[in-house]
Every structure is written in structure tokens, then in C-alpha cells.
Amino acid sequence: MAAAAAALLLLALLSASIPPPAVAAEAASAAPHKTYIVRVDRRFKPTIFPTHAHWYGASFLADPLHLLHVYDTVFHGFSALLSHERAADVARHPSVLAVFEDRRRFLYTTRSPQFIGLRNQQGLWSDSDYGSDVIVGVLDTGIWPERRSFSDLNLGPVPSRWKGSCETGASFGPSNCNKKLIGARSFSKGHDASASVGGPAINETVEFRSPRDADGHGTHTASTAAGRHAFQASMAGYASGIAKGVAPKARLAAYKVCWKGSGCLDSDILAGFDSAVADGVDVISVSIGGGDGVASPYYLDPIAVGSYGAVTRGVFVSTSAGNDGPTGMSVTNLAPWLMTVGAGTIDRTFPADVMLGDGRKLAGVSLYSGKPLDGKMFRLVYPGKAGGLAASLCMENSLDPKIVKGAIVICDRGSSPRVSKGQVVKDAGGVGMILANGISNGEGLVGDAHVLPACAVGADEGDAVKAYVSSSATSTATIVFRGTVVGIKPAPVVASFSGRGPNGLSPSVLKPDLIAPGVNILAAWTDAAGPTGLDSDARKTEFNILSGTSMACPHASGAAALLKSAHPSWSPAAIRSAMMTTASVDDNRFQPVTDESTGKASTPYDFGAGHLNLDRAMDPGLVYDLGKQDYVNFLCAIGYGPKTIQVITHEPVTCPAKKPAPENLNYPSFSVVFDGAMSGNLSKTFIRTATNVGPPSSVYRSQVQTGGRGLSVSVKPRKLVFTPGVSVQNYAVTVTADSGVLATDELGAAFGSLSWMDGKHVVRSPIVVSRIQPL
Asked: In this protein, which residues make up the domain named PA (predicted)?
């Protein structure tokens, strides 16, 4: 944790002395040509040009530019293929605020509506009419429109405010849209430009030059957010029942910004944001994150910049927290105007057992649906024992058929997709696979639709089966598949892969915001790929079961659609606040939610405010609202200058004469950061503003929980009185911590909570107190 704290300090120092944005172009590598995104101050456009596109393309500089995308809604500017020298020239133009390289990003790859508190004919589903007429835009890999999840049966006319279109392209046209899927577009110009200078090209033997989904990820996330009821749904018999999205009557618009096998280009993502907001969506769902494990400053992050333009126009944006957990500071999508969603389990699993020749039974999970092993025992092999690291990981061409043929093979998890390892084993003649977690994955398990009999086991079981192979020259095993089991306890549990805090860019904002179902989620799938997504998998399935924060994100997107339908006047910040302050911190045993990677109680670094609970979010009592100026003040507080902030806001800004405190952002959680060089009792006071959205006459009293350990929290006033004429109240929170306790704590942090209660509502906010250690 000391290394993480040092990294936090370095990031804080960097943000306090950010260079002018144009320097981003100067710092680029000297490759011959690359795609760049250019942020332009729209006020500089000469009046002789009818549009910004005419200005950029015709005579922005003496030598006209070949434009890829022109942005004019959430962002003003363009993307273009430029040499390093030309990018530097563009950066020096007086109207240019920033020039930065296009980057490649990647996807973060039913019972869950009930698990988050939704009930038929009552509560939020009923009060919101199932999200009727709210429009959810999904930035992903496209959509497979023929699925039952996208039926428009009994839906009314398309909302009149809709301005989007249904794009014509390969195997896709206007007839593929309906009153449910009301729009679909694809964006590939950035991708194609990158491919022209050596980047990966779109593989048109498997891809569609249209919104049609060749990958499956986009179809899955779209139906999770807003899929219609589909009866007798399952994935090859697993998870059978009624499949439905969180907002079944919401309308969908698909924006294909990611392409199978080659990821998503920033310039295309930004174009997707621009179009979605111009088209009239109410919610944007983005299960995409950084591909290099490093969080970019907000002004260089197209998801942060694009979503700022969306949120400040009233559009709610939900993003995934990333799949690099359980490592600390692995959470992605950190901007405070985003909803950042981590992943938890639900109370359903797909058990499989490894039966060893010595009589022991090891528990695991699997979604294998082919011919079973019927209890027959097979030779057990661990190729890593003699074949080295590649063989232990069952990498391509690493297994010796002479050793593994006819055997069940133990493969270590990591470095390649889990299902790919099974294909490698199958190709080498193996009859089955045991996929063993390493220490970093702990006991966290996800089901996969393997191409051969296979079972995933936790780190302890993996060690046990390897020890058995080492101790016996005649070790044998078989795998028994037990189908679907519902009612599992404990649930939810924070998934081991879910991205964790602290926030590496702005430690004063707690991320993730909350967790939602993201493990073994059943949703619609494409006909263009088998359930494993492998090229060799020719199986077809209407539904598939996937895990990842990609699956958690659309749960929050659908939840936002329901809340927007029930409360049309609520801002994106109010909707996020309602979800966060009503989130659950206990599991279905009424015990604190645990961490799958450790088995111990989770902290706000793992789950933010808790687990999404829509049974309470409909009526949160109080909300913490935010607007443009609040976000501008926050950006000033973390050291961004007016020109840098304008790259994000695309409007000129002025920072307050007195530098604001970042902790004073009116966020539904509290993250208090102290200077690690200080000793003794550390104290900090900050302000929050609560808005009453419950009964006009209400009295709320505060309750603080700290768990001891040298942390105290005081609140003034301790009582908030609301009347028909007073719906907004301020209060101050003072946090005092013992520096010695923080220094010796395993996480370098202390945790607590503040709740406001009126006898009906409990408005809960987590409190995190940490120190930034000196380098």
C-alpha cells in the first residue's frame, strides 16, 4: 500500500502542474503518421464559414486537413490523420486548445433484476412504467437486432424528440430498427485511419461494416440494460427462466464504436458520444476502459470529455470500473461526473465438481453443455510441472500431445482467455481441463461455456489438485456438472476482478461509486459468434452468460433509465446520488458484503457506496446535486488551469479567486486525504448540500459510524429541517484521524459512514480517510 500511496502523491503533484494541453502533441512519438484528436475553441470560427466542418476542412491552416470525424455536440473539434510535425503545427494554431493522440481502448468483458430489488407490478418497475420512453444509448460493438430482447411488441410510438437514424450497411438497414431499437450507427473512421499507418485493421471476414454485432458484447450489454421479457430463456439449459433487462420498456439506440478483435479508438468513441447526445438519448452506457492500465488526465480522456458534454446536457452516463482487480488503484473511468460501476456476484451459480482418484471432491464452476464425462476417471496431468510457464498457462502450441492426449489437463489462469486454454487442450488431444486460479484471483470464479469438459477452481483447490498430481504417479480425476443453483449465500460478494480504489487521479473522489451484478449474467447474444467467442466455436445461442464490469455497467444504465422515467426532472447527479445513498452494504445473510479475493469484509475501496438496490433508490429522501460550476470548481481545485479546463468544458471558465478544496465537491461519498508528512491528530472540515426530494416537511438526524481505530467524525448541524419553502440545506463535516493509526493500517486508510434518517429514509454516504505518503 505504501507504493500506491506514493503513486497517489506523484499523481497529485503532476495534476498540480499540468502543462498546456498543446504540449500533448509535442510529446508524441515521432511516428510518420498517427490519428489525432484536436480540441478547438469554437469562438474563433470566421463568420464566412457556414459550419465548423467547412472551417476545419477548407482552410483551418494553409494546407487543408483530411478530416475523419467532426465533433460539434459534446466536443468541438475534429480528428485527422497527421504527421507528428503537422500535429505540432496544428497545436500552435491560436484557436486550438489541445491536440492529443488517438488511443485504443478495450471492452470490459435473468435473475439480476430481481437481485437488485426490482419486482413485477410494484416499486420502481411499476412507478416508472418499466422505463417507458426513456432512450438508452449503448456505445459498444453494435447489436444483433433479431433477438426477442429487442421486440417492440405493445410499445407505443418512438418518442417525438428522437433525432437519430438507423444506418444502412452490411447486413443491416432501416428494417432492422423498430419501436424498441429506434436507432443504430457505426463509427470506424478512426479505426481505418489507424490501420492505414500500421494499426490493426477491421477484419471484414468476421466483421460487419454496419451496426450489426459480430462480437456479442454490445448485444449482451444492450439487452442487460433494456431488454424485453423473453420467456424460456437459457444458455444451453443454464440459467433458465425469463430473461429481461433492467428497464424493459426503455428504447435502445446502438452506437458501434468497438470492432471485434481490434478494440475501440478514442476518436470513434468521441464520435459516438457526439451523435448519441445530438440524437436525443437520455442515458449512455459505456462498458469500455483504458487499454494500458494508466489513467489519463481528464482532458486527455475521450470518455471523460465526451461524458462531460453529455452530463451537462442532462444525459446520465454509466461506465465500468475495469477488470484489473483485486489490485489496489485499479479502478478506471474516474471522472466525478460519471457513474463508475464495479461488479458483484448474484445468488445464482453453476457448480461443477472435480472428483479426484483419492476420493476427494473439489468444488468449482462451469457452463460446459456438451457430452459429459459420465463419471469416468481420466489420467490427470499438470504440464507446468515440466513444461515451463507457457505450458502451465496452456498457451497456444505449448502442450505436448504425447503428454496430454487422453488426459484431464490442469491449466493456470492468466495471460490468455480462459476459454482459449480449453481450445489449446482440446487441440492437443486432452479430454478435459481444470482451470486453476492463482493467488491474485483467490477464490473468485466465473463460469465459461467451454469447448470441452472443463471446470474452474479457486486458488486453494488449484494448489490441492497440483499437489495430488505431484504426490501420485497414477493420479486420476473426472468432472461432474451440476447445472444451475439459485439461492446461494453469501451474495452479493465483490468480484475478485472488479476494479478497486483508491482513485489514482483524484483521491478526494471515491471510486468505484457502487457495484452491481457482474458475474454470470444471462443476456442476449449474437449469431455471429459462439458462446466462447472463439473463431473455432461454431455453436449458436440466443443468450449467453458473461462476467465482467461490462455486465455491471448496463445494470446501472438501466437503473438510471427507470429513475429518469419516474423522476424526469432529476439531473444525472441526482440520479447517481439516489443509487449511491440507498446502496446495500449487507449481503443476503445480513452480514457485511465480503471480498471474493480475500474472504474478508469489503471496504468502500472495493464497492464504493455499496451494492445497487433499486427497491430503495426510487425514494431516496435526499440527494446530492451537482451542476457545471461544481465540476469546474473541482477541476480548479485539483490544479487544472482555465485553458486546460476548457478542453473538457469547451466553454471559457474562470477559477475562483480562492482555490476550492476538492473534498467540497458535493459528492454522495466522502474521501478525505491528509498529507502523509503530518503527524498527530489530523483534521479537515468540508461542506455538503442536501436537497430534499421526499415529503416537503421532513426532519433528518445524522448518525455516524466509524468503527473506532482513531477516527472521529462530527456533523454540524446534526439535524436538517426541511419545509415547503426550504428544500436545500448545507451542513459541515469535520473528520479527525490519528496519523499513527492510518500509518499502521494494512490499507493505509480508515472507513466509516454518515447517514441522515427521518424515520423512513436512510441516506447513507461512505467515508474514507487516507494519507498520501511522501516519496
From this structure: 380-464
Is this structure's pTM higher than 0.85? yes
Question: Which grid cell sits at 664?
Answer: 467540497
What is the rounded distance in angstroms from the CA atom of residue 382 to the CA atom of residue 378?
Answer: 13
Confirm whether 625 is domain-assigned: no
* Rounded Cα gap, residues 335 and 340, in angstroms: 9
User: DSSP code of 745?
Assistant: S
Residue pair 491/587 in contact by the 8 Å Cβ criterion:
yes
Please check whether residue 737 lies inside any domain of the structure. yes
Residues labelled as active-site residues: 140, 217, 550
Segment 101-154, tens digit of pLDDT? 998 888 765 444 455 455 554 455 556 666 678 999 999 999 999 999 999 999
**For residue 366, which amino acid is it?**
S
Q: What is the DSSP string of 45-109?
A: --TTSSSHHHHHHHHSSSS---EEEEEESS-EEEEEEEEHHHHHHHHHSTTEEEEEE--EEEE--
Residues 315 and 298 in one domain: yes
* Side-chain half-sphere exposure of 481, counting CA atoms within 13 A: 26
- 231 DSSP 8-state letter: E
Amino acid code (one letter) for 402:
K
Structural domain boundaries enclosing 429: 351-483
Give the C-alpha separation, 516 to 556, whole Å.
Answer: 7
CB 238 within 8 A of CB 484: yes
Nearest CA-CA partner of 465 in 528, 530, 407, 525: 407
Amino acid 77 reads: G
The gap between the terminal CA atoms of the chain, to the nearest Å, is: 13
Q: Which residue has the cell 480540441?
A: 39
> What's the angle, vertex CA 664, arms to CA 731 and CA 627, rounded to 5?
95
Distance CA 748, CA 736 (A): 15
Taking each helix axis from N to C terminus, what angle separates 384-392 and 459-471, rounded to the nearest 10 degrees? Answer: 150
Q: Rounded distance, CA 572 to CA 628, Å?
A: 12
How far does CA 343 lie from the centroid of its chain? 8
- 282 and 142 within one domain: yes
The continuous run of DSSP H or E covering 262 comes out as none
The cell numbers describing 293, all together, are 492500465
Assigned domain for 691 exists: yes
Q: What totals of helices (H) and strands (E) does the chain contain, helices first?
A: 21, 39
What does each C-alpha distance from 198 to 195, 202, 689 come to in angstroms?
5, 12, 51
Hey, how many other C-beta atoms are within 10 angstroms of the C-beta on 43? 10
Helix (H, G, I), strand (E, B) or coil at 133: coil
Residue 730 phi, psi dihedral angles, 5° rounding = -100, 155
Angle at 506 between CA 618 and CA 747, to 5 degrees: 90
- Cα angle 359, 362, 365; round to 5: 140
CB 647 within 8 A of CB 298: no
| Pair 152, 11 in one domain | no
